[in-house]
Amino acid sequence: MVRIILNLLWLILGGGIVLALGYAVAALICFVLIITIPFGVASLRLAGYALWPFGRTLVQKPGAGVASCAANVLWVLLAGWWLALSHIVAGVTLCLTVIGIPFGVANFKLVPAALWPLGQHVVDAP
């Protein structure tokens, strides 16, 4: 029940909708460019995670190898840096208030995912 309340507050106060829209815009750009469709799929995965982060976590896929690592470098150059920057700015801003600290921490938790999305998948937290 606490996770549901935190996720609903996240959508309203934590900027979850705005951050998810940022990932959706990145996904649309990647889908239009055709070659970057795998980046678009990863961006949509992160958009869903940005909408509902509490009670879920990111884990490494066991089969992710050198190709996903090389693609992640390209992702950082194209879209990852500004998505990570948006999480950092939102996290710092939210941590200025006591009520916003859990949401700021959730934003900081999303920074590595924004920088390195390929080779990870979202699972329910234990």
TrEMBL record:
<dbReference type="InterPro" id="IPR052937">
    <property type="entry name" value="Inner_membrane_protein"/>
</dbReference>
<feature type="domain" description="Inner membrane component">
    <location>
        <begin position="5"/>
        <end position="56"/>
    </location>
</feature>
<feature type="domain" description="Inner membrane component">
    <location>
        <begin position="71"/>
        <end position="120"/>
    </location>
</feature>
<protein>
    <submittedName>
        <fullName>Uncharacterized membrane protein YccF, DUF307 family</fullName>
    </submittedName>
</protein>
<keyword id="KW-0812">Transmembrane</keyword>
<feature type="transmembrane region" description="Helical">
    <location>
        <begin position="7"/>
        <end position="25"/>
    </location>
</feature>
<keyword id="KW-1133">Transmembrane helix</keyword>
<keyword id="KW-0472">Membrane</keyword>
<dbReference type="Pfam" id="PF03733">
    <property type="entry name" value="YccF"/>
</dbReference>
<dbReference type="GO" id="GO:0005886">
    <property type="term" value="C:plasma membrane"/>
</dbReference>
<dbReference type="InterPro" id="IPR005185">
    <property type="entry name" value="YccF"/>
</dbReference>
<feature type="transmembrane region" description="Helical">
    <location>
        <begin position="31"/>
        <end position="52"/>
    </location>
</feature>
<feature type="transmembrane region" description="Helical">
    <location>
        <begin position="64"/>
        <end position="82"/>
    </location>
</feature>
<feature type="transmembrane region" description="Helical">
    <location>
        <begin position="88"/>
        <end position="108"/>
    </location>
</feature>
<dbReference type="InterPro" id="IPR031308">
    <property type="entry name" value="UCP028777"/>
</dbReference>
